[in-house]
Design a protein that fits this description.
The chain contains 1 helix and 8 strands, in the order ββββββββα. The protein has 84 residues and is mainly beta. The chain has one domain. It has a 3-stranded antiparallel sheet. A hairpin with a 4-residue loop joins strand 3 and strand 4. It is globular. The two termini are 21 Å apart. Bound molecules: zinc ion (ZN). Zinc ion binds next to loops.
């Protein structure tokens, strides 16, 4: 899946996060993008912090204080507005 946004763009969630970190339609700013080795997925930093790391969608434990999310859960806000 291709990502239609980059760092600094306003992005909207297109689905609810399984653990409730965000809801469909919530808007964030893309702060950073990475490719995570454990499952070769592109992940996005939307400014959500977590104290003791998190579990990647593939089950791998990720250390640090940034809660990264699958980039495919978001779309660039401008593009969504044009579609709607
Ligand atoms: Zn992973």
């Amino acid at each position: 899946m291709s990502i239609d946004y980059t760092i600094g763009d306003d992005i909207a969630a297109i689905e609810n996060h399984p653990q409730g970190a965000f809801k469909k339609g919530d808007v964030f700013t893309c702060k950073s993008l990475i490719t995570r080795d454990c499952c070769n997925s592109v992940q996005v930093d939307i400014g959500v912090k977590i104290e003791r790391g998190f579990e990647c969608g593939c089950g791998n434990r990720v250390e640090g204080t940034v809660w990264w999310f699958y980039a495919s859960r978001f779309r660039k806000l401008d593009n969504l507005v044009q579609i709607n």
